[in-house]
């Protein structure tokens, strides 16, 4: 069940944390994985890890905000594996300009970054792969989002939340446009994740706010991504699934 042999996945922002977890999980199920990251060394490290475990991977470093670089990276992945990308995991979502600050104190020069990477970065990647998916009558678009896109938070992430809200809305519309082509499009809205903070006290405090008593991990994200990528979930589309340890419920 959930075998992905013969499929090619592109995971953006996969050089670390949750993106790396998604890349590893897809490869473990048999998919050939194009590991993207803005930093080439991180993408190459995850590629090497997947290959050492017996999987198939290639590093495709590029900036998701550069549409020409996105198309070149998608083409390189297809050439490396002799098959076009048919599973897309849009995970890149943290812009270098992003700072946690109340909106009223946020310089307008910093407004665009979190919105651009979450909306336009994802659109560039979807646009680069969707026609091949339509031609094959099979494809998976998996958008990584955040609870910040659905719940107001007073922690200085309003523009990040706006970007996540916007791309979630787009994915719902996309799902309807391509449903009859055998393509599904869904969103995973992540809750509080363990991003390897060096302060165990902070980790414990955050975990205490989650009903399950722990933060999310790359393994949790990888399992959910595999579920959405699989043939067995071909009737699941247009949905936003909360992956948050029960912190918020539909």
TrEMBL record:
<dbReference type="GO" id="GO:0016491">
    <property type="term" value="F:oxidoreductase activity"/>
</dbReference>
<comment type="similarity">
    <text>Belongs to the short-chain dehydrogenases/reductases (SDR) family.</text>
</comment>
<dbReference type="InterPro" id="IPR036291">
    <property type="entry name" value="NAD(P)-bd_dom_sf"/>
</dbReference>
<keyword id="KW-0560">Oxidoreductase</keyword>
<dbReference type="InterPro" id="IPR002347">
    <property type="entry name" value="SDR_fam"/>
</dbReference>
<dbReference type="InterPro" id="IPR050259">
    <property type="entry name" value="SDR"/>
</dbReference>
<protein>
    <submittedName>
        <fullName>3-oxoacyl-[acyl-carrier protein] reductase</fullName>
    </submittedName>
</protein>
<dbReference type="Pfam" id="PF00106">
    <property type="entry name" value="adh_short"/>
</dbReference>
